[in-house]
Amino acid sequence: MLNTVFIIILGSIMLVAAFLAVYIKNLVSSVIAAGIISLLASLIYLLLAAPDVAMTEAAIGSGLTTVVFLLALKNIKQKEEDTDD
Amino acid sequence: MNLVMTLGFLLVIIGLWAMLTQKNLIKIIIGFSIIDTGVHLIIVSIGYIKGRTAPILDASVSVADAANKIVDPIPSALVLTAIVIGLAVTALMLTFVIKLYQKNKSLSIDDYQELKW
Amino acid sequence: MIKQVLSLVAIVLLAALIFAPMLINTPLHTSLTPLANYYATQGADDLGAPNLVTAIVVTYRGLDTLGEVTVLFIATAGIGFLMGKKKKLITPKRPASELLQNGASFLLPIIILFGVYIFMHGHLTPGGGFQGGVVIASGILFMMLINQDWSHNVFLFLESFSGFFYVTIGALGIVLAGGFLDNRILPLGTFGTIFSAGAIPLIYSLIGLKVGTELVGILHAMRGEE
After folding, report:
1. Distance between CA C218 and CA C195 in Å, rounded?
2. Per-residue pLDDT, B29
3. Dihedral through CA C76, CA C171, CA B79, CA C116, nearest 10?
4. For C48-189, where are the alpha helices, taking DSSP H only?
5. Contact B2 C26 (CB under 8 A)
6. CB B7 to CB A44 under 8 A?
């Protein structure tokens, strides 16, 4: 039963983070919220007895995906500054 | 009632809603990655069997009665590859967005109407 | 406004016609499917790998993994092609802080060692080539944060090297064992030790190097350019 309670708590935080990721105006905050969804998903994989998937999701879903999004935002911001000159 | 599968479907719905209604290209890609997470949760939840442990044979799970003690390893193996592909596809889409921004100086989908009918 | 209503209708239809029936009709499993049952009972004797997920990824569904690595390669090539060759690497407004520099140069060897540990023990513990490769890529990300100009050629070489030997070992399986990507070209060894499970540690290490270097390629291509 403890698993069920954990899944309900993690799931409700994930749904809130998903809404924030969609509706926050600031793009950086929205990317971070999407990273939180992946991080909590990796905890749920652990509860579902899939440690391999949990490791992959924690490293890729919340780590590298966030980095790739932030690099893209940095690229876009740079192009924006180039036009102002 | 499968709790994790419900959560996966809700995430797919939220991601789809974001992809259909948001104007910002980055927000659309974030919606795509939310759908990705939801689909992975659904697939892993199909393989789960209540009260069993991870598919690794060691001191606590002997080879002889592994079939009664472990969860289904196949969905885990499929999701493992799907997650890596998801990152590659997301990065490719973001590269397209960077290129589009370089060309038209806009992130709004309303400014790209070449395929509109 | 009309677009939002249409989207809402589409999503409600999708949820009512596809998601809800799936949710109600998918049974909660109480026993393994026949295929999973075969892997659980015969996997240890067949391949000698305690981690069944690794056994499936590397050997039973090895062709699937080869295709996955190919898709990753094509995506990386596409990103590199679209972003183009760097004319000049971006010069940061100010150099990285001393804390970041010292911390990164202290942590970098440890992170890479951890990544290598993960993919060497992929057949014994959770983890393997994909996870180890990503850990190595995040170590290299540290290097990118502190040192703005490093040679990318060594990663290109490692990528071609690991891809070539992955396919070569797979082809050796046709000659020496039962088929493409068969792990029994090397002796199975003692169950549960690091030098066991035939070629699985070797193949998974090569996959780890390949995935890691390709992700470094993605990060390298997406860095800013002037």
Report:
1. 33
2. 92
3. -70
4. 52-55, 62-83, 98-120, 129-146, 153-176
5. yes
6. yes
DSSP annotation string for B51-92: T-B-SB-SSSS-STTGGGTB--HHHHHHHHHHHHHHHHHHHH
Alpha-carbon distance A31 to A35, whole Å?
A: 6
Q: For residue B99, which residues of chain A lie inside 8 Å, CB to CB?
A: none
Could you say which of A55, A64, A78 has the minimum Cβ distance to residue C127? A55
Interchain proximity B57–C79, CB inside 8 Å: no
Average pLDDT over residues B5-20: 90
Partners for A (CB, 8 Å, 3+ pairs)? B, C
If one looks up domain B3-50+70-108 in CATH, what number appears?
1.10.287.3510
Q: Is any Cβ of chain A less than 8 angstroms from the Cβ of B87?
A: yes
Measured CA to CA, the distance from residue A34 to residue A17 in angstroms comes to 7
- Is C198 in CB contact (< 8 Å) with chain A? no
ipTM: 0.87
Q: Is C89 helix (H, G, I), strand (E, B) or coil?
A: strand
Q: How far is A85 from chain B (nearest CA, A)?
A: 14
For A52-79, write each residue's pLDDT tens digit: 889 888 888 888 899 999 988 888 888 7
Interior angle at CA B8, CA A40 and CA A47, nearest 5: 45
Q: What residues pair up with B108 in beta bridges, in sequence order?
A: B24
**Half-sphere exposure of residue C225: CA atoms within 13 angstroms, side-chain side:** 15
Q: C51: which DSSP letter?
A: B
Could you list the pLDDT tens digit for every one of the 226 residues in chain C?
788 888 888 888 888 888 888 888 877 777 778 888 888 787 777 777 788 888 888 888 888 888 888 898 899 888 888 887 665 655 666 677 888 888 888 888 899 898 888 888 878 888 788 888 888 888 888 888 776 566 677 778 888 888 888 888 888 878 777 777 777 777 777 776 777 777 788 888 888 888 888 888 888 888 765 4
Contact (CB, 8 A) for B44 and B4? yes
Asked whether A76 and B101 are in contact (CB, 8 A), the reply is: yes
Identify the domain containing residue A58 by its residue range: 2-84
Angle at B45 between CA C211 and CA B54, to 5 degrees: 70
Angle subtended at Cα B80 by Cα B74 and Cα B84, rounded to the nearest 5 degrees: 155
Residues from chain B that touch A83, judged by Cβ atoms under 8 A, are: 105
Those residues whose C-beta lies under 8 Å from the C-beta of residue C180, and which sit 6 or more positions away, are C62, C63, C170, C171, C173, C174
Q: What is the pTM of this model?
A: 0.88
